[in-house]
Fold this protein.
Amino acid sequence: MPEVQAVKDLDKVKIVGYLLEKTYGQQIADIWNIGLNLALRISDLLSIKFSDIQGDRLILREGKTGKLATIKLNEKARVIIERIRSERPDHVYLFQSYRNRWSFNQSPKPLSRRYVSKAISMIGEEVGLELGTHSMRKTRGYHLYKNTNDLARVMKMLRHSSEAVTLRYIGITQEDVDRDFVELEL
């Protein structure tokens, strides 16, 4: 299985969101847009309940690490969340599966990771990128690093403990470092 990439071109970030909406619907496009803005692992993103959102903050315990993530929601994330909340006031999960809405004795469940992964992967093929569910998180980290050149800040946002892991994760290669040396002349 190939390693998924960050989307380094901001126009392609928008194209992916557009194609997800046109091909798979608003809910999958919302996952992409919220995922880009929260930089969570897909399992944590799909597990968000409306009760985890307190004012302008998302507070949840990460499944993989057990760390408490307290994320201030930006305007784009708040607008999407409020739209979903108003359209689906009976939902427990932000990205709740519609599959069991006709089953009366079924408890609510979020969308499956497999479905989201397939949708993002298929759109990645269309735009010529190796995309997957981690691409949202990697893309956010990559663009934060490119805008700030502050690796410590990216590490904190992604809740990583190693610079090497963070650089590899966001796709900063030796080629990128070489280009920085050539382009920045003092």
Summary: The chain has a mean pLDDT of 92. The longest helix spans residues 10-24.
